[in-house]
Design goal:
Layout: H1 9-23, H2 31-43, H3 48-65, H4 70-85, E1 105-110, H5 117-130, E2 135-139, H6 145-158, E3 161-163, H7 171-184, E4 189-193, H8 202-215, E5 225-231, H9 236-248, E6 253-257, H10 267-275, E7 279-283, E8 291-293, H11 296-303
Helix pairs in contact: 1-2, 2-3, 4-11, 5-6, 7-8, 9-10
Length: 310
């Protein structure tokens, strides 16, 4: 079983059930089959624009080749989706998630409440610690005591330092102290948590700019990565969040959580295609090791794995 087979099982089953029903007993790919494929892609929450792009390319191949077997059809779908997701011409399918040429390498993590942001930070800290990196977490979500307490538990589990202040403190002050401590302690990576915010709250969105500016007083080019955490199970709502956050701040990468609990995993493809922002991490479970570095080729291969074609 591949890395993502378990994590995208519900999406995979839903997708292939629909396509299999469309092609059973057919000797060629006709308009009815294409309509059913379009329906399957939309149902997986790939998004209308991305779906139409894939179906149009598929239709061109059908018209040119006249006949396609089911296996050929699947291979074309796999290739089309893989190309859509290859934003950085990464032949091995992996966008390198960290740039350790910066020290400290500062990652600001953003997203609305409930998407798994704090958990993602804890898992990232554990991943980095396992690579031998010295990590410091900044608990800049000072609005919710539960968020800071949860982050402290994750820091303990990962075996990394955490900088926190009292509830209601200025989040930018926490970020400043964290980056300053990282420089003093020669840390490799800084993970800055930010308050979960509704993407339509302009005042809270503006706070992200303040945090960025304050960190730059210590590390002039910080943050080096603005990681937006999205809940894949919310489907197109996750896409809307991505659009709003991209308007408010310079989002540079994505982490998709809760992929194992949804049949809407196609949203990963739609967001990458429409937003042109790479997915760096993907959450496929609750365990501390269930945050994985995203591998485009392996993701697509799992989506179209052979056991589901029988």
């Amino acid at each position: 079983m591949g890395l993502f087979d378990k994590g995208i099982q519900k999406t995979k089953q839903s997708f292939f059930e629909r396509i299999s029903r469309a092609v059973v007993g057919k000797s060629k790919v006709d308009d009815e089959t294409l309509d059913a494929i379009e329906e399957a892609l939309v149902a997986s929450d790939m998004g209308v624009d991305t779906t139409l792009k894939i179906v149009d390319n598929l239709q061109d191949r059908v018209e040119r080749d006249k006949y396609l077997s089911f296996d050929e059809l699947v291979e074309i779908l796999r290739d089309e989706i893989s190309k859509l997701m290859d934003l950085e011409n990464a032949p091995d399918g992996v966008v390198q998630p960290f740039d350790f040429s910066h020290k400290p390498y500062v990652i600001m993590v953003v997203g609305v409440n409930g998407v798994g942001k704090t958990t993602t930070i804890g898992k990232l800290a554990s991943m980095l610690k396992a690579q031998g990196k010295k990590v410091i977490i900044g608990a800049a979500d000072t609005f919710r005591a539960a968020a800071v307490d949860q982050l402290e538990i994750w820091a303990q589990r990962a075996g990394v330092d955490i900088v926190r202040q009292s509830m209601g403190s200025d989040p930018a002050s926490v970020a400043f102290d964290t980056v300053k401590a990282a420089v003093a302690r020669e840390a490799d990576v800084v993970l800055i948590d930010t308050a979960g915010r509704l993407h339509n709250r302009i005042d809270l969105m503006n706070e992200l700019t303040k945090i960025r500016n304050v960190m730059r007083k210590v590390v002039p080019d910080a943050p080096h990565d603005v990681l937006l955490v999205l809940d894949a199970s919310t489907g197109q709502n996750a896409y809307q969040q991505a659009k709003e956050f991209a308007r408010a701040t310079d989002v540079t990468s994505l982490a998709l959580t809760k992929l194992d609990g949804t049949a809407k995993g196609g949203v990963v493809i739609g967001i990458v295609d429409q937003m042109k922002i790479p997915v760096k991490f993907i959450g496929i479970g609750e365990g501390i090791d269930d945050l994985k570095i995203f591998d485009r080729k392996e993701f697509v291969a799992s989506l179209f794995s052979k056991e589901d074609l029988k």
